[in-house]
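Folded chain entry
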Amino acid sequence: MKRIFIALLFMLPFVASAQVAPQYMNDTVYMLPEARVTAQWLNDTDRYRYNQMKFYVTTILPYVDASTQLFKDVNAKVNERGISRKERRKYVNGREDEMRTKFEDKIKQLNVTQGTLLVKLICRQTELNLYKILQEFKNPLTAVKWQTWARLNGLNLDRRYNPKEEKDLENIMEELGYPLPSSYSTYTSKG
């Protein structure tokens, strides 16, 4: 019995290579598009939570787009040469008032989960944390005030967005056509 086993063990690589060799006589090779598995649920509760998160994200996406566009505009204006501190503060406050009149009533109607998602997505799209944005464009005291409020509500504005911790949120954003910004390659690189 041992001899048969040893003989089979030595023959196995030759038999396996003979069976695996592909036949390309009249075959046509097709390149298929990349397939992506978006979500797998263990139970109905997980699927419900995923769909609820997707609904919330689609609800707040216009606010995320508006806030990231505002950030880019303000950042470009503030980084201009020759702008004084007074002009900078006036511009930032004017744009803040504009956004407040446009979105304040709608933002107040969001629930806590939607607000949390809004903060996370703004951090994702701007590639910064909100605490640093508040420090830069408003003042450190305002940043501390909002950080305190956020901490009382279970959120940390001083954390950078980590796509590895938010897999469902990343799947939803990619489904909706918002790829991960390039600065997050350090989080997603293998190794």
Q: What stands out?
A: The two ends are 45 Å apart (CA to CA).
